[in-house]
Amino acid sequence: MKKSRVSFSHVVGELLLTVGVILLLFTFYESYWTNIESNKLQEHAKENLEQEWHNPRAKLHPEMGEAFARMYIPAFGSDFNFAIVEGTDEDDLLRGPGRYVDSQMPGEIGNFAVAGHRVGKGAPFNDLDNLSTCDAIVVETQNEWITYRVLPVAGAPADCFSPEQMAKPEYQSVVGRHITVPGDVGVTKPIPESDVPASEGLLTLTTCHPRFSNAERMIVHAMGVSHEPKVPGQTPPVLEEN
């Protein structure tokens, strides 16, 4: 009776099939299961944020991983609403978009910089590549609504900023969206990639690029255009833009 011989190509085929199954399971875990876990943590962060805002002795500075503001992007639909947490460690970003701790706070002069995942773990920044010039990014704090507008993308005209803002030479090189390397910490400076003192409030969003890869970083820069005090039961009209 002849013994069957296992060919080299058969072994390679089996190995490739095994690797393919492992990659498929990993992709499922990253894009589906981590979303479930992250969504639970995000809801918990939102609940804690509401409680903190109703506390007359609210903290001036959030703890690491603690939510302190909310972000809305009307262009992504009325249901885009994420609590922003303090910190950019992996545990922090599992809860939601996280503030770079060396950057400014919302509404301050300088650069309020926030990181977020693009695939899995809630994927708050999955669609950053769809933002266009002058699209609104609204940040809600305990006491006010702050509206930022995306700076010019691909040279598109930007009539949403005041002439004074657009005339400032130190901001001429700050574009609305670009791709850079992971170690480019200059994007979170008060004026990105510059050591000139800031005179405007910026918002910077960072995420991995391309999807399912951390080889590069996608950066979105927006400039503050308005501050509105919060009025109970009212939201700013900008949230209806889409």
Describe this structure in words.
InterPro entries: Sortase, Sortase_Class_E, Sortase_dom-sf, Sortase_E. The active site is at residues 117, 208. Keywords: Hydrolase, Membrane, Transmembrane, Transmembrane helix. Helices cover 24% and strands 24% of the residues. The chain is of the alpha+beta class. It has a single domain, classed as Beta Barrel (Sortase, Chain: A), CATH 2.40.260.10. Strands 1-2-3-4-8-9-6-5 form an eight-stranded mixed beta barrel. The N and C termini lie far apart (74 Å). The relative contact order is 0.14.
Task: Report the CATH C-level class.
Answer: Mainly Beta
Looking at the structure, the CATH topology is: Sortase, Chain: A
Biggest sheet, spatial arrangement of strands: 1-2-3-4-8-9-6-5
Q: Unreliable runs, pLDDT <50, ≥5 residues? A: 19-26
What is the second-level CATH architecture? Beta Barrel
Number of domains: 1
Oligomer: single chain
Binned, the helix content reads: 10-25%
Number of strands: 9
* Biggest sheet features: 8 strands, mixed, barrel
pLDDT averaged over residues: 89
- Global Rg: 22 Å
3D shape = globular
Total count of helical runs of at least 4 residues = 3
Rounded to the nearest angstrom, the distance between the terminal CA atoms is 74 Å
Question: What is the ordering of alpha helices and beta strands?
Answer: HEEHEEEEHEEE
| Share of residues in strands | 15-25%
Pfam families: Sortase
Transmembrane segments: 12-29
Active site: 117, 208
Protein name: Housekeeping sortase
